[in-house]
Amino acid sequence: MTPREPSSAAPDRNTTARRRASDESIRAAVAAAAGATVVVGTLIGTAATMLARSVVTPPNRTREPVRIHDLIFDKGTTTSGQITLARTIESETLGDYTILWDHDQGKARLGATITATVDTVTRRFTEAEGTPLADATAVRVASAPQRDIDDLELPYESVAIPGELGDMPAWFVPAPTPVDGNWVIHVHGRGATLTEPLRAVPFVAEAGWNSLVVRYRNDLGAPAAPTGKYGLGLSEWRDVDAAIEWAISRGATRIILAGWSMGGSIAAQTYFKSEFRDRIVGMFLESPAVNWTETLTYQARKLRMPDWVARRGMGLLDSPLSRTLVGIDERIDLAELDLVARAEEFDVPILLLHSVADTVVPVTASQALATARPDIIRYVEFTQARHTRLWNVDRITWEREVREWFTALA
């Protein structure tokens, strides 16, 4: 009997097993790819959400990031001497500053650098007050050289500005010889101390302008927004508008808005939206947040995030999910905050100061704004100063420009 050939319609057992193994491998690979996609998508969504939240969340005001390595007091005193700090961008920058510790209960002036190593910098400090510096292990560095408004040695009054969330504390500094109706409203930056704008106050006072240095929502000592989050200017402007109304009730007829960093964005939104816009005759912007999209992309790159992840995070700010995922009171339209795109809407003189060495807000948006409106913008560019440290590094240029501009407008 001749053996029968295997039927072509019935695969042998080995072939069937191989096919099954291949199918299972394909299914496993598909499942793994799907799982990996979910994981990657989750990581991207988490990173984007974290970026969006970090932008609108006020910084931890108790954080003191610069470690103290050594402290040597001058003979017979505990208020001055030499302090050796960890070398950081904040501690190594030339100029005069303030150091704060113990939740701002201790303060001192930080002066010239004495020596520096790769890891540390030793500087002079003077006029320490409050909690003993000897008890501190770390400090934070504030850009203003003034510890408090008393350091200006000018008459002032602590006042309260009625706002929609409650009273906003402020300082009123009258000019020694005021020009009737001339007021400047000073707005500090994101998470900065109220002392940040004080560098300008003596020079505007000299030119005859009264000063009102204001707080806004979520500041330490001021009412908080319902969710405690920033609006990047789109909500804070209402507090500055309340300050304008308060100033008008006390005789202000010509007002300049002076904004530092995010305070520049707040000042611009006030200018665009205020019912008192006809009283605003000029703007002074120092290291301003001119384009938040550019600023947030820049910050994301410093964290080594791809641009498209940063864009997703920025998209969350204006998303229907913004309240749930980001925790903000109102959606934030970054296009509305783009001052370059809105350059044609300005019709008052602007003094714009920025530095190419700014590591927080890139200078490029200020350059673009100045290029867009050379007819009304006096743009002065600095080369070595860090963010809002222009006066500290080159006070001669800064003071000359501020004095001349405010005097001309007075």
TrEMBL record:
It comes from the Bacteria. GO terms for molecular function: hydrolase activity. This is Alpha/beta hydrolase family protein. Keywords: Hydrolase, Membrane, Transmembrane, Transmembrane helix. It comes from Gulosibacter bifidus. Residues 1-22 are annotated as: Disordered. Its EC number is 3.4.-.-. The chain crosses the membrane at residues 28-52. The keyword DNA-binding does not apply. Residues 227-407 form the Peptidase S9 prolyl oligopeptidase catalytic domain. The keyword Hydrolase applies.
